[in-house]
């Protein structure tokens, strides 16, 4: 049980409807139903029953809801004590794919923050499903979600179900990044098959809504390379690429200064046909603040610097 569960239950009592409560909470009705079921199981009681008048509390449910509302009021009172402090605080939160051009924009963003204000910045590199969950469940304001263009309809369905809006930032093809000592580093052009005997480094947690794990693996992780190293973070990928001459990785184009720093090159493959999109996601009712707009502008600038490498 957590505070979100309390808020969920109180909202259902208020609306008398699971569907309406889910809409007000910006979440899918199945997820809300599952959360209430978990709450009831943890408490060992039934909180709501379905009647002709909608979702109504049981006797035990009424008792629980009374306590829940008191707790939420106390938390609201506690938060209000520090409201004045929060007015002078910068809070920026975003989940992003493991992309160097975005991290490059974030570094420039951090350099431009006001030094005279309290600051809380949350920047999390993760996969698409966790990025979306961070908005719905963890109160993150923004996310950048990456997907194959061919799967856009699946993501649009999910965005609509979760009352999210999406704004395209960039459509691109992956580049193959490798050490300057890789045998293909000096080639003017390469084919995907030229990489067959190299070690492929890739992130091992792709996600596509409405697709099962085997379908996702086939769509995102399949390839001709027989040797693969799966990573779940970005920091070690550069060390691996720099240290293992025979390795490569499919990535969104990388800023030049990062390539130079790690002694890497990036190559386009003429027969690589998959296109990807990075889209900016937030709640439908969310209004960008000036720090959000600053970051978005810097992402756009970083994209412009790398898109025609």
List the helices and strands and how they pair.
Blueprint lengths: L2 H13 L2 H7 L4 H15 L4 E4 L2 E4 L1 H22 L2 H5 L1 E8 L3 H12 L6 E8 L2 H10 L4 E7 L3 H10 L2 E10 L1 E5 L19 E5 L9 H9 L5 E5 L3 H9 L3 E5 L4 H6 L2 E4 L7 E9 L6 H17 L3
Parallel strand pairs: 3-4, 3-5, 8-9, 8-10
Antiparallel strand pairs: 1-2, 5-12, 6-12, 7-10, 7-11
Helix pairs in contact: 1-2, 1-4, 2-3, 6-12
Number of strands: 12
CATH topology of the largest domain: D-Maltodextrin-Binding Protein, domain 2
Please identify the top-level CATH class of the largest domain.
Alpha Beta
| Topology order in helix (H) and strand (E) letters | HHHEEHHEHEHEHEEEHEHEHEEH
Secondary structure: helix percent: 40-55%
Q: Categorize the overall geometry.
A: elongated
Query: How many distinct folded domains?
Result: 3
Assigned CATH superfamily of the largest domain: Periplasmic binding protein-like II
Q: C-alpha Rg, in Å? A: 23 Å
Describe this structure in words.
With 309 residues, the protein is of the alpha/beta class. It has three domains: 3-81, Orthogonal Bundle (Arc Repressor Mutant, subunit A); 84-170 and 277-306, Periplasmic binding protein-like II (D-Maltodextrin-Binding Protein, domain 2, 3-Layer(aba) Sandwich); 172-273, Periplasmic binding protein-like II (D-Maltodextrin-Binding Protein, domain 2), CATH 3.40.190.10. Helices cover 44% and strands 24% of the residues. The chain is built from twelve helices and twelve strands. The chain has a five-stranded mixed beta sheet with strand order 4-3-5-12-6, sandwiched between helices. Strands 9-8-10-7-11 form a five-stranded mixed beta sheet. It is elongated. The mean pLDDT is 88.
